[in-house]
Amino acid sequence: MGLVICVLSCPIYARSVCDRQVTKEIEACAKSNFMETDLQLNRVYQSIQSRWGSADQADLQQAQRYWIQYKTKYCQNAYDIVSPGKEAAIDKWACLESVTTTRIHELLYLDNAYSMTDFAKALNFIAREYEHGNPGRVLEKLANEESDTKNDLDWKRYMNANCRMTHVKLLEENNVCVGRMSFYRNW
Questions:
Q1: What dihedral angle (degrees, nearest 10) is formed by the CA atoms of 101, 106, 108, 112?
Q2: Residue 75: which residues within 8 A CB-CB, separation 6 or more?
Q3: How far apart are CA 126 and CA 137, in angstroms?
Q4: I need a labelling partner for 106 at 20 to 30 A (CA). Which of 71, 144, 171, 186 fits?
Q5: What angle do CA 115, 118, 124 make, to 5 degrees?
Q6: pLDDT for 34-62, tens place per residue?
Q7: Is the previous residue joined to 11 through a cis bond, with omega within 30 degrees of 0?
Q8: For residues 148 and 156, what is the distance between their CA atoms, to the nearest angstrom?
């Protein structure tokens, strides 16, 4: 529990607002934010690894490897889309920070059912506004979006490994996990 409190309140988790006027300064700020987030991820990951049994550790390591492959390719694509523009590196660092922050939340969720209330609120809002109050329909649509990512093997492997763990550790249904992960990936 102490780790969760630290993640949410420690100064290292507070990021800088990158609002400078010079592209190189914004890039340096975005890189610094990612580096801080990456340090936090490593702390959370190592804390979990030190407390879990060997079978769970192996599953966590495999999911982490898949996540790293996904993150690397996904954010390189963000860079490639904008490159050779001056903002390409900023987009890549911002992508890395965002994807890493989401991974921290996934790890905390896996470790101690850290609240995903932001997802639940978003799911209920979307259901009310677009699906006559039916969150199951929203999850179904999010899961169907995932079936369109057949070519993104890195994402699929990461998502499947992560959802297997949330099912085993938290009894989370696969469609809920897939919908949640799709939501954070695409929104």
A1: 170
A2: 92, 95, 96, 99
A3: 10
A4: 144
A5: 115
A6: 999 999 999 999 999 999 999 999 999 99
A7: no
A8: 11
